[in-house]
Amino acid sequence: MTRWTRLSRPLSECRLSLIACSVCLSPARGADPSVVTGAPVWRGVPADADASALMRRASGADDASAANLDRNLAMGLDRLREAQAAGVVGELASRALALGGPMAATRPAVDAAARQAVRLLREDGADAALLVPT
Amino acid sequence: MGLVARELERHGVATVSLILLHAALREEPPPRALWVPFFHGYALGSPSDPASQREVVDAALELLRDAEASLPVLRDFRLRP
Q1: Domain count of the fold of chain A
Q2: Distance (Å, rounded) from C-alpha A102 to C-alpha A133?
Q3: A108 domain residue, yes or no
C-alpha cells in the first residue's frame, strides 16, 4: 500500500521545493559536460535565481521555444516567490531541482532519479514539493 | 514524475504534481495532481502572463493545503473566466 504524506502543519509554515522536468540551467554554472545522456542527474538552481536569466535547452520532444519565451513556464520561480511573499508558502527551499539531461525512460533510471530527489530534498529540509513537467 | 512523487511521499515529503496528460496517471498516479489544459512546454500556461501562471500555482498549492482530501486526488484546472 502506498504511503501518502500529509502536511503536519499549515503550508504557510512549510518549506517548499520546486522540482522541474525541464533542463533549466543556472547561468552561474552553465553547460555541464559531466551530464551524460541517460544519466538521471538533478541540477540545483538557486531559488533566488533570476528566472529570466535561466538558460534552457530542449529535452525530448517538448517545445523548447515555450520556456525560452518565459522561463517561468518551466520553473515557475517568480510565481513561487510571489506565493511565499503572500504567505501561502512558509519558505522556498534554497534550490530548485531541474532534471539535467535527457533521461532514459526506464524503471531503473527513474528509480535512481527518484532516490536522488529524496536525498536532495532531505538535505534541503523540504516539507513539500511542487513537481512541474516539461 | 509520478514515481518521483511517490518516492518523496514515502520519505515524508508531501507532493503535488502538475500533469499535462491524464494518461500520465495510469501506472504510477501521484497523490495530488492538477491537470492543466496546456501544451507540452507550457505547464504554467501562457508566457508573460504572471496572473494566469499564478492561478495555476495557487490551484496546485491548494491541493497541498487540503488536509481532508481523499488521496490520490486529481483536479482539473480551469482558468477563471
Answers
A1: 1
A2: 13
A3: yes
Model confidence over B60-80: pLDDT tens digits?
Answer: 999 999 988 899 999 999 877
Residues of A in contact with B44 (CB under 8 A): 72-74, 76, 79, 132
Q: What is the DSSP string of A38-106?
A: T---EEEEETTS-GGG-EEE--TTS-HHHHHH-GGGTT-HHHHHHHHHTTSSSEE-SEEEEE-S----S
pTM listed for this prediction = 0.88
Cα A91 to Cα A10, A35, A73, A80, B34: the distances in Å are 12, 30, 21, 9, 22
Query: Does the interface predicted TM-score (ipTM) exceed 0.90?
Result: yes
Asked whether residue A1 is assigned to any structural domain, the reply reads: no
Q: In this structure, are residues A101 and A35 in contact, taking their beta carbons and an 8 Å threshold?
A: yes
Q: What is the mean predicted confidence (pLDDT) over B19-26?
A: 81
Cβ-in-10-Å burial (0-12, 13-18, 19+) of B71 comes to middle
pLDDT digits (tens, 9 = 90+) for A44-65: 888 888 877 776 554 444 445 5
Nearest of B25, B43, B38, B51 to residue A71 by alpha carbon: B43
Please report whether residue A2 resides in a domain: no
Residue A70, amino acid: D
- How far apart CA A133 and CA B8 sit, in angstroms, is 16
Of A2, A15, A91, which to mutate for an interface test with B (greatest number of B Cβ within 10 Å)?
A: A2
- Choose among B7, B45, B53: nearest Cβ to A114: B7
Range(s) of the domain holding residue A37: 21-132
